[in-house]
Amino acid sequence: MRSMIFVAVLLSLLLTSCANVDLNKGKQGAIGGAAGGALIGQAIGRDTEATLIGAAVGTMLGYIVGNEMDKFDKRQLNQAYEFTPSGQTTSWQNPDSGNSYQVTPQPAYTSPSSPQRPCRQAEIEAFIDGRRETTYTTACRNDAGQWVLRN
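^ that's the sequence the OP posted. Answer follows.
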């Protein structure tokens, strides 16, 4: 049993250290939740079935929590596109992650391919884990009138 707990702890440390590289917050939450759920399942049930059930429940809960963090930032970004005057900067800090963002939208425009859908470009300066990252994005209105980031 101790070897099973050791393997679960080692696996969770390896997975969470890899998770910070390219995964979104939902996936990071799922990985951490799976590891934590597996440990709790093993501690309670003391068998493989309990460990697997704990990992499954932890994965689901971790993904939900991590995905909500992403939704908060997307909602704030949508507000910036909707209400921030062109050339002015708005900022926020995610209360869960501690990451902060500054967004400066540009004037709306329409493209010849879709003249009924206005678009806006914006400069986003993000402070994530103490590192500053700057990116430029474009969002266009969808049929429901919401701003949607273009790929």
